[in-house]
Amino acid sequence: MIEGHVPPADIRRLLDERPDAVGLAVPGMPYGSPGMGPESERESYEVFLIQRDGSTEVYASYSAV
After folding, report:
1. What are the residue boundaries of the structural domains of the chain, listed by start?
2. Among 37, 58, 62, CA closest to 48
3. What per-residue confidence (pLDDT) applies to 26?
């Protein structure tokens, strides 16, 4: 599953790597994430990999620009 404003590159990476996980999530609606304003003015945010046990880990990080 994909939840939130996850960048397409991270979705492609997930499909290529096929980790044993539920999916990806970006909590909230960070400015500059896909569909939330220009990437050239984004705030920092993280994409989380959701494990089958419900735990999460940072899958990708995007710094503020």
Report:
1. 2-62
2. 58
3. 98
